[in-house]
Design a protein that fits this description.
Elements (H helix, E strand, L loop, with lengths): L1 H32 L4 H34 L7 H12 L16
């Protein structure tokens, strides 16, 4: 009778320690590989760097576009820019101009 009580107490203790170890292991694995874990944080950091560089490129492209648009405003129109746009839209070229057509297929 005494040996059964000791065996039951020993098995209960082992079971509790095993459950605690499994719980700690589960949370440790998820802390490293889970949705918000260390690996996910590194991937998010890389994505932030890539998107930041793309944002800088797009801002630069927008500034260049705004400069070109400002040259076409009526209060300060650039004659060269106007000539370029007219030739492009009307597909007009001077006989001495060199015309290179680039076929862009989407």
């Amino acid at each position: 009778m005494v040996s059964r009580a000791r065996l039951k107490a020993l098995l209960t203790g082992v079971a509790l320690y095993a459950m605690a170890a499994a719980t700690v292991g589960y949370f440790s694995v998820n802390a490293y590989t889970g949705k918000y874990g260390l690996n996910a944080r590194q991937e998010l950091d890389q994505e932030i760097i890539a998107l930041t560089s793309e944002l800088a490129r797009l801002k630069k492209e927008r500034i260049e576009g705004e400069k070109r648009v400002s040259l076409l405003r009526t209060d300060r129109m650039d004659p060269d820019m106007l000539d370029e746009r007219v030739r492009y839209q009307l597909e007009y070229a001077h006989p001495r101009d060199l015309v290179v057509k680039i076929n862009r297929s989407n």
